[in-house]
């Protein structure tokens, strides 16, 4: 069952008229059975649509053009059941704008040793049909995912699902709008960047708004709607009786309810999937949105603090990729270290960590916020779940973009933090903090990240390939000398790939 609504990938099988109607009829039946298997599988979360077998340059060109203009099609899976002469694919691949996967499989898993004949060989010749198609992809310098193995294998279906999720993220990237309330934090470098270049590279738009435009919508929220929202908070979170009975604290909850409803109305009416704000620019608001931002993220919106529109967009894109998977995705910041037997990072932010990563039901409380605007703000308090995760940082290198991934292992904190008034997550970076932090710094990674326990490194790798940007991964195998050499080689490659 699809977890991506009406979004779909097209399954297109290549052949040719040479084989005659009987073989082509079998090719079509086999393709339909493969697609039915994908759609029945718990491993594949995207709806797969079987398209008619393409047998000529005209049919290939037409289906590629159709994929380009179909808004629900996020990508195509191409498979050569028989031999499909690859010059037939040149015009179509030249025009194809959607990402494509080359699935190198065959219909039957095992050979019928006692019955195999040349008719069987001609019908089931993906082994060399896909090599012919692979050549033209390489000759045309086309970036694509290649998945090899029998289509019914769980590992193959998992790889297909990973790619489909990246394609859904890329589709979101192409259509995403980010609302930027106020400007970047003053004098901060890494959250800046070229928004025009980002729109050209990734597709998403960044729109700036003054705080007056937002506060007008926030102030229009009715008291009745605010009170109804407080009832939701009481259902969703642990709130002490003292907080609900305290007139002042209740007022702070009402502030957040009004901010949440107002911001959500602004985002919905503007067609935005992500937003940023900054604690240095809050004119007209009761304070820096805390609970409001956390709840909006939990509904699927991307967020970046201090005007960080690149991370905001990445959080939203990764939330789309993660649809239907266990584990959350959140805006995050490497905040402070725990040097000990195994060095650790405590990730947090001033207020805005998404409750989708919480280990237990969050506690809703009111605490003093002291940066930018000194005031009491309601926020959710929790510690993140233990388990594998990734931190992702998209940065602007000036002449290009780079996406950095660090694989980490989130752990349960060894002790409570009763005086820490923010949500947090504790993790051990791979291969260790010493190498991971040095590599991150060499790569220019930001202090802000998109943190996820639902999205994998492979998902981000596929997305980066679709976007045509550099990806650098810090994982168990990372060593600093090799990593620095990789950065140097990447710099040369991406400089040359842009041409003169």
From TrEMBL:
Residues 177-324 form the L-arabinose isomerase central domain. It is an enzyme of class 5 (isomerase). Residues 328-470 form the L-arabinose isomerase C-terminal domain. Keywords: Arabinose catabolism, Carbohydrate metabolism, Isomerase, Manganese, Metal-binding. One of its GO terms (cellular component) is cytosol. Binds 1 Mn(2+) ion per subunit. Catalyzes the conversion of L-arabinose to L-ribulose. This is L-arabinose isomerase. It comes from Catenovulum maritimum. The gene is araA.
